[in-house]
Amino acid sequence: MATTASTLSWSSSSWLKSFGGNSNEASKLSDRRTALVILAQKKAKKTRKVILKQDVEYLGKMGQLLDVKAGFYRNFLLPTGKAQIVTPILLKEMRMEEERIEAEKKRVKEEAQQLALIFETVGAFKVKRKGGKGKQIFGSVTAQDLVDIIKAQLQRDVDKRIVSLPEIRETGEYVAELKLHPEVTARVRLNVFAN
Length: 195
What we know:
alpha+beta, four-stranded mixed sheet, 5 helices
């Protein structure tokens, strides 16, 4: 912040004379000069660059970089601990955290792709059900049944919520989809037959 300094000099003798003081005293004090320093400052910045530590309604989400008014930061964001002034160190930490998150996302996606490859190369899973008339079976094949078969054959735990099955009430071959990742879906064949 640039500051300007102005120095004003004044003689104590002129000051004493103005109040009708003795000129003898004025001559003694005229040798001494006093400096008066005035510092002038520029106006404070009106905005602050901050990073949000929490989601703030109508402002932004956690980790977002924003310009906010100085008073809003000073009176609301700072006391509640919802934001922090951006520093080079903080920016570096933020970049490292983003890189770590990206690497983690990439690792999870690759893991899901490998699992999808395993599911698709296994072939068809066989499901036995008690048979009725013709191709009919008693009951139906559910997502939980498929999860149990995968666990028995491949020793892999799969959540039944990621399994989407067509309605299976007859014997035959069906295709089920396992949504392992938002971008990775495995197609699994099911052979349903009656005992």
